[in-house]
Design a protein that fits this description.
- Two copies of one chain form a homodimer.
- By secondary structure, chain A is an alpha/beta fold.
- Chain A is built from eleven helices and eleven strands.
- A six-stranded mixed beta sheet of chain A has the order 3-2-1-4-11-10, with helices on both faces. In chain A, strands 5-6-9-7-8 form a five-stranded mixed beta sheet, sandwiched between helices.
- In chain A, strand 2, helix 2 and strand 3 form a beta-alpha-beta unit.
- In chain A, helix 4 packs parallel to helix 5, helix 6 runs antiparallel to helix 11 and helix 8 runs antiparallel to helix 9.
- The two termini of chain A are 29 Å apart.
- The model of chain A has no long low-confidence stretch (mean pLDDT 92).
- At the A-B interface, helix 8 and helix 9 of A face helix 8 and helix 9 of B.
């Protein structure tokens, strides 16, 4: 296996640097061929490394003096904080010092930093944020779930092509079926964007376009790729999260309403919790930003060492499968 | 109380004309001052009326020879089928022969028929479809949930004003708080539409604008009005429906996975069903299309006599509260 180098924004996230450093070290110990570069305040990182056991060739520190917080406006922060952990890590993708980067920092800053600092693959106009989205059969790939609002039809077509490559080779779904989110399934339904995108997708080679999908059906698992403009994709992602949490809360209240259901709840609650766990995004190792030089993986802000490990696995697959070479191949045509 | 006349598209819906006629008759018997006009094939309607007891002054038939089906393209159908039950009923709003109309027919045709045939109140540019949308505290008003894709900022402002009047006077929510759906809550977040709409809403008099709301938070009841462009509003509505159904299905499977949870499920299932009933839209009496001459109420295709009665109650409130006069008053300024 070729060497894989992963840059960590060690300062981004609710539990940074402790959990990021811990997760990186655990992943290094589990994957002897992978090099972890911890980017951020060197004293803070050294402090977290104290007491951990790891191969020193595999885990190194790259000092960065600044941190971008979630409160900062992303574009301004990325432009002004040139020595922030996030910007320094993203730049390592452009220079080729790293193959992938992982951040649990401000979503906006990761998106902006990824696009501006890592740079896009030649021919790619916008880099979409993709995420595994639960359905009754497992999960589908939802993209763009937040990176490029007001995208144009040709952007969505590129997203479908990149999503197909990613899903086939990183996740292992053969000939994934693409559904374009719309408010009806008939060809004449929808807004200007989807009506213009539909015929383009129909004639795009290398994807398996299955037509429109309504938001009520995204949980059926009929489509492997749920394709949407970023505003809509983000609404779909966040609504599922919000509703799943709300239903759990309502169930708990409802089940406590009388003795009979209280007893039932005590017996059934483990199964209820297990069932609703499919809506827990932390299982999927973060959301990849596709079409960049290298891979940017955005993790939830509340990520711990466990999620860092899942994100590392994703980076390894991405590199081993040569996803970016495959994307370049597609977009050369 | 002033006389109220309600026109029914007696031929629209999965259970038309039987359930529509039955619901109209029951509503007539419960509301002696309301006149019901059953629009559609007179033989079919007479047949359904046979055996029902009602005041003949209160329930009349207006013959219409055609029916618009859900399979037809809405605009073409509304334009070509001038003697369809839906078009004839909608025209009665324009001529003043009816104060409100109720249809369980094709959503697209009801939206088009309402806007084209009933006509808009002077000053109203687009007529949004509104619906009561469940949250943990009860329900909020979601609009536009499907009528006008690619709307402009000034349309959304009009929707907020009309939604405020409707919610205050039909539903009885004092000074309802308006949230504009966005993919973040910071003022600089979002697409071009919401960024242009935000400052307009801020300076609009007569509404209580509370800022942005993310899709994950629409269920917590902080906002009384969930304002969105129709594509996004429709996605929000349908995703909630789809996810609620999916979770029920998953829970049933999950709860059957072992004996302990099977026993628990048997005890807890009534409470679970009761809890999830808040996501059953049939309780709310259909979705009003606001800003037209008279009120158009769109019911679910699978509506029965029970839902017809709830829709009638909504029409009565709408008329008694003089909603359209209040809208005219607002838009005169």
């Amino acid at each position: 296996m070729a060497e894989i180098r992963i840059a960590f924004d060690a300062m981004g996230g609710d539990y940074a640097p402790a959990e990021i450093v811990k997760g990186a070290v655990e992943a290094a110990n589990n994957n002897p061929d992978v090099k972890m570069i911890l980017v951020g305040d060197q004293d803070a990182i050294k402090n977290e490394l104290t007491g951990l056991t790891y191969n020193k060739d595999q885990v190194t520190i790259k000092h960065a003096s600044e941190v971008i917080t979630c409160e900062e406006a992303p574009v301004a922060a990325v432009r002004s904080k040139k020595d922030s952990s996030l910007v320094v890590a993203a730049k390592m993708l452009k220079t080729g010092e790293a193959d992938a980067m992982i951040s649990a920092g401000s979503t906006g800053a990761v998106l902006v930093g990824g696009q501006l600092m890592a740079g896009k693959i030649r021919g790619i106009k916008r880099a979409p944020l993709a995420t595994m989205f639960p359905n009754v059969k497992g999960a589908s790939l939802l993209l763009d779930c937040g990176a490029n609002v007001d995208a144009r039809p040709e952007h969505l077509v590129q997203f479908a092509k990149m999503g197909t490559i990613y899903l086939e080779h990183v996740v292992g779904v053969k000939n994934p079926k693409v559904g374009l989110v719309n408010i009806g399934v008939e060809e004449e339904k929808g807004n200007a964007l989807v009506k213009e995108t539909y015929p383009l997708l129909k004639e795009t080679e290398g994807i398996n376009f299955g037509g429109y999908v309504e938001a009520r059906d995204v949980f059926d698992g009929e489509f492997d790729i749920i394709l949407a403009e970023a505003f809509v994709g983000n609404v779909i992602l966040k609504e599922a999260e919000g509703l799943a949490n709300t239903i759990v809360k309502l169930l708990k209240q409802g089940l406590m309403s009388n003795l009979r259901s209280k007893m039932g709840a005590a017996l059934a609650m483990p199964a209820i919790k297990e069932t609703l766990k499919v809506f827990d995004a932390s299982e999927y190792g973060g959301a990849p930003l596709l079409g960049l030089n290298g891979l940017v993986v955005k993790m939830h802000g509340n990520s711990t060492a466990k999620e860092v490990q899942a994100a590392v696995r994703q980076c390894i697959n991405f590199k081993e499968q040569g996803i970016n070479d495959k994307i370049r191949e597609q977009f050369k045509k």
